[in-house]
Design goal:
By secondary structure, the chain is of the alpha+beta class. Helices cover 53% and strands 20% of the residues. It contains 14 helices and 16 strands. A five-stranded antiparallel beta sheet has the order 6-5-9-8-7, with helices on both faces. Strands 11-13-14-16-15 form a five-stranded mixed beta sheet, with helices on one face. A hairpin with a 4-residue loop joins β5 and β6. The chain is extended, with a radius of gyration of 36 Å. Its main location: membrane. InterPro entries: BphY/WalK/GraS-like, HATPase_C_sf, HATPase_dom, His_kinase_dom, HisK_dim/P_dom, HisK_dim/P_sf, Sig_transdc_His_kin-like_C. Its EC number is 2.7.13.3.
């Protein structure tokens, strides 16, 4: 019997392609379903709010209609404004016909007006009909806010979903490719490991079996195994049921110590307990631990060695970078969620007051609340824009010839109002036409955030000094203020995402400004230094 191997490979490739296509269609359909449900939910909320506003208008107009009816009972000749019409009993209209057919009242809606018609009885005798018309309450502001908010959340979610899917897909491809290389030549390849990924875990299990098989098939087993572990660049050691470390490779000695006792792990009680439990109940097990004294995460794998009785081999894979990336991602999402709550709560609160208590509000109060809604909406938009800027993937930047002095002047022009309101004295010292090649968008963001930061932290009536100069092929830009200055801890953290040196003094900031500055400078090849004296002020110096 002849087996066509090429035919099998071709069929396998076609099957794999079909599976990928099905998975892709399934993911797209899930995305479309969620998007449809999200849009439908937003529409339902808007409809509900509009109906609620109409119901409130109707109730208020009904109260007024019956009050007019009561007045007419006492004084039929009373005159009212043009919004009130008294209809005789023989009036021929749809509103009157509905009441004659048994309705208690009739409501008529147009795009702008609301009309209520009620019967007027005197001693159980129908005398006439009272018809009142008033302008409907507008829901445009609330509807616009809801749509902007829903669209912003949706775009952030889509962006994060795309970013996570792309990163996960690339990591999976790279990891599996690396594992295949290790399996082909386990003695000359190094490990690449992650957590919580079924495909990666399966591939690494096959890798471990391959390595173990090669180690155990060597003769004599002990000598070849000890030589074998020296080939790897991550910590490996072998210990027995008495807790004695029989052998360790160079990587373990460099990371920890050249020791013969498990007491080396005494500072890490959970790791020591894990290894001792394997002495009592030998078996393969893997766990991830945090080693505080060296500030690192390691995935520790313990495997009994069948060729060597009562001995266990421990491999330690450094997953610090992966853990740090995961923690940073989770912190970033938590911070964005936290900062979104403040403007959204304010918008919802003021909008609720405008929607439900409009009759009781004075015009000045309503205008003030509307201004607060606009202010918080702009703050929300700025947070979304800064978040997208921080999560933007680096790409090739187009650089053109720019005038640093001109760029500084453009930014200052946009901040004339806050500078005037705080009565700040801004002094500029630079030569015009300081030309150099850079990316205009990145440069503007750097200058804008540094100048805005100085304005926010400089007290009323304070001073800001801006300087720019050129030394050989290097451009220098510095900005100094006479604000409160920074402590040593604050100075070391000000470029972190969402960190503010003093929240009470920068309530309208997003906490991303200086982080964006550092990110953009890194992509442009620039550098920033900060010097601060507590109680006297701070100076930022940028070099290009």
């Amino acid at each position: 019997m002849t087996i066509d191997l090429s035919k099998q490979k071709e069929d396998s490739g076609i099957s794999s392609l079909k599976t990928k296509q099905l998975n892709s269609k399934f993911k797209i359909s899930k995305l479309l379903i969620f998007s449809g449900v999200y849009i439908l939910t937003t529409a339902v909320v808007i409809i509900f709010l509009n109906q609620h506003t109409t119901a409130i208008d109707t109730d208020n107009l009904m109260v007024r209609a019956y009050a007019v009816s009561d007045i007419l009972k006492k004084n039929p000749d009373t005159k009212f404004d043009e919004s009130v019409i008294v209809l005789p009993t023989n009036t021929d209209s749809k509103a009157v016909d509905n009441i004659k057919n048994g309705a208690k009242f009739t409501r008529t809606l147009t795009k702008t007006d609301l009309t209520i018609t009620v019967p007027n009885y005197q001693e159980a005798v129908l005398k006439n009909y009272v018809q009142i018309t008033r302008q409907r309450s507008s829901d445009n502001a609330v509807n616009t806010i809801i749509i902007i908010f829903a669209a912003s959340i949706y775009l952030i979610w889509i962006f994060q979903l795309y970013k996570s899917a792309k990163k996960l897909h690339q990591f999976e491809i790279d990891t599996i490719a690396k594992i295949k290389n290790i399996r082909r030549s386990p003695l000359t390849q190094s490990y690449l490991i992650s957590e919580n990924d079924d495909k990666v875990t399966t591939a690494l299990n096959h890798l471990g079996e391959t390595i173990q098989h090669q180690a155990e098939s060597s003769t004599p087993a002990k000598k070849n195994l000890y030589e074998f572990i020296e080939l790897f660049e991550f910590p490996i050691f072998i210990y027995d049921i008495k807790g004695t470390i029989r052998r360790s490779n160079a990587s373990f000695k460099n990371e920890f110590a050249d020791t013969k006792n498990l007491d080396i792990f005494s500072p890490y009680s959970d790791v020591l307990q894990f290894l001792v439990n394997k002495m009592l109940k030998p078996g393969q097990q893997e766990r991830t631990f945090y080693f505080e004294h060296i500030n690192a995460y390691y995935t520790v794998n313990v495997r009994p060695i069948q060729a060597l009785d009562h001995r266990l081999m421990v491999t330690m894979i450094d997953v610090t970078t992966y853990k740090a990336t995961t923690l940073a991602h989770n912190d970033f999402i938590a911070n964005v969620s936290h900062d979104l709550k403040t403007p959204l709560a304010a918008i919802a609160g003021f909008a609720d007051i405008l929607a439900n208590d409009q009759e009781k509000l004075a015009p000045d109060a309503a205008k003030k609340f509307a201004k607060h809604i606009v202010k918080e909406t702009r703050r929300l938009s700025k947070l979304v824009a800064d978040t997208l800027e921080m999560t933007r993937q680096p790409k090739h930047l187009k650089k053109i010839k720019l005038d640093l002095a001109g760029q500084i002047d453009d930014v200052l022009t946009n901040f004339e109002l806050p500078i005037s309101e705080k009565r700040l004295l801004v002094t500029r010292q630079y030569e015009p036409k300081l030309y150099f090649k850079s990316n205009e968008k990145h440069l503007y963001a750097i200058l804008k955030n540094l100048i805005e930061n100085a304005i926010n932290y400089t007290p009323d009536g304070g001073k800001i000094f801006i300087a720019a100069s050129k030394q050989s092929d290097t451009l220098l830009f510095s900005i100094s203020d006479n604000g409160p200055g920074l402590t040593a801890i604050e100075e070391s953290r000000i470029f972190e995402r969402f960190y503010r040196a003093d929240d009470t003094r920068d309530s309208e900031g997003t906490g991303l400004g200086l982080a964006i500055v550092k990110k953009n400078l890194a992509e442009l090849g620039g550098h920033i230094d900060v010097v601060s004296v507590l109680g006297k002020g701070t100076t930022f110096t940028v070099t290009f």
